[in-house]
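Supplementary Note 3. Input sequence used for the single-chain structure prediction.
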Amino acid sequence: MPFLRAERSFARGSTLLRGAACLALVAGSLSLGGCLSFGKDDDSADVLALAAETEPADVLYNQGLANLEGGRLGEAAKKFEAIDRQHPYSEWARKALVMRAFTSYRNGDYEEAVTSSRRYLATYPGTDEAPYAQYIIGLSYFRQIPDVTRDQKETARASAAMQEVVDRYPESEYAEDARSKIRVTRDQLAGKEMQVGRYYLERREYLAAINRFKTVVDTYPNTRHVEEALARLTESYYAMGLTQEAQASASVLGQNFPDSQWYKDSYSLLQTNGLEPRAGGATSWFANATKAITGGA
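The predicted structure, written as discrete structure tokens, is reproduced below.
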């Protein structure tokens, strides 16, 4: 983790504070012992149990780090959680919260990782660790991206969370990887549209198929699926007898991917009826599609 070494140095700098806390605890225990001799045994046990439960925050934090480095993720999470419970609103609690989010992510508890990260961002939005908390949210969703044949809700969430990293923290050390993962998520979302579009095309539900293929071209123009989407548009329009639209789709494909096998297949399809690719006009959807592919996001 990028700031793990710094955290250990920070923790060691609190030795005097830890010593003072221990002395205070010992002194308090002695005082309580004298007073409790006149009280009820049950009350004495409750107070002593409470004192035993409370540990210095820096001790808990260092124990959490040690467990994390040793691969004992469950124990690490408990230590960071204990800081939040025993020392709420402290500087240690703030640091422990983002570490708990990271530990939950490492342990595959993505729901808790997202919850802790969102809580951190809501409570400490302007801190140095805020970009990392947002990045953990994106990673947690990213690790749950399913096969393209399944619902892509987590993929969309991963894309949106990583876009937050780029938009809100463009100079952070996580921005570049966030951009890379956005490209992956967009390609996955485009792949889902293609999968559904092919299904409709096989069933000869051409209008439904065209809507899916258009979504790929309009929304995901820089993904690897756009070539096939244009070819499938050519096929769909041609099957419906809309030859001008078929020619225009093939034209956009040829202008942007002249060496593509998809273009060669589309060209051959049109040739079966003596047709060839032809631009669809400056104001048509096809002209806008070309602009999206050449300059789209």
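Residues 2-41, 44-52 have pLDDT under 50 and may be disordered. Residues 175-202 form the longest helix (28 residues).
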